[in-house]
């Protein structure tokens, strides 16, 4: 009888440990001309919180030398789409968490929409994104003449942004923003239609920091990790 009870306790312990150890895979999508290493603060904090490197996906997309050449069409899409698909395949929960920074926010959102996987995204976090456009890009079709600001870019009212607006992105959605963001607020105006451009439709909460565009990514790692728990 004691042996049976001991075996039962071991079985229950293994179930409990497995449940505790099982985490959503995480996809970290960097911004325009950045690299996966821009996520090092978040990546290392995830590791210290029990994630394994095999549960964290950091796609590397776009030109590193020509910011105006990158948009949301073609070669920029592929690494992000592959990372989301790979994360879903690897996740022991069947769900993923997605965190994007800057143009990585809109790229990640686009691929979630195209793949129709929002029901498998537990948490989506958009950091310093321009989901409503950048005034520095102008208003489509009278936009700045570059890929980044064009049809598939971040000009206000671009066909790309208009098509993305309202798409479901996950079960829980959060934005992290700043009113001194030197990219989103480059013209001195952060809002489009009275709403901060980094805010996401139907979001659960939005967090404002007194940080620059890049500090929002590197200096909010603790919040990012807390939001996906």
What would your notes on this structure say?
The chain is an alpha/beta fold and 229 residues long. The chain has one domain: 3-Layer(aba) Sandwich (Rossmann fold). It is 32% helix and 19% strand. The protein contains 7 helices and 11 strands. The chain has helices spanning 2-21, 40-48, 77-90, 103-115, 159-164, 215-218, 221-227, and strands at 25-29, 56-57, 96-101, 121-127, 134-139, 142-143, 155-156, 172-177, 191-192, 195-196, 205-208. Strands 2-1-3-4-8-11 form a 6-stranded parallel beta sheet, with helices on one face. A hairpin with a 2-residue loop joins β5 (134-139) and β6. α2 (40-48) crosses α7 and α3 crosses α4. The longest helix has 20 residues, at 2-21.
Quaternary structure: single chain
Shape, per Cα inertia axes: globular
Count of the separate structural domains: 1
CATH topology: Rossmann fold
**How much strand content do the residues show?**
15-25%
Q: Helix share of residues?
A: 25-40%
Organism: Marisediminitalea aggregata
Pfam family, one: Lipase_2
GO molecular function, one term: lipase activity
InterPro entries: AB_hydrolase_fold, Lipase_EstA/Esterase_EstB
Summarize the structure.
With about 230 residues, the chain is α/β, with parallel strands linked by helices.
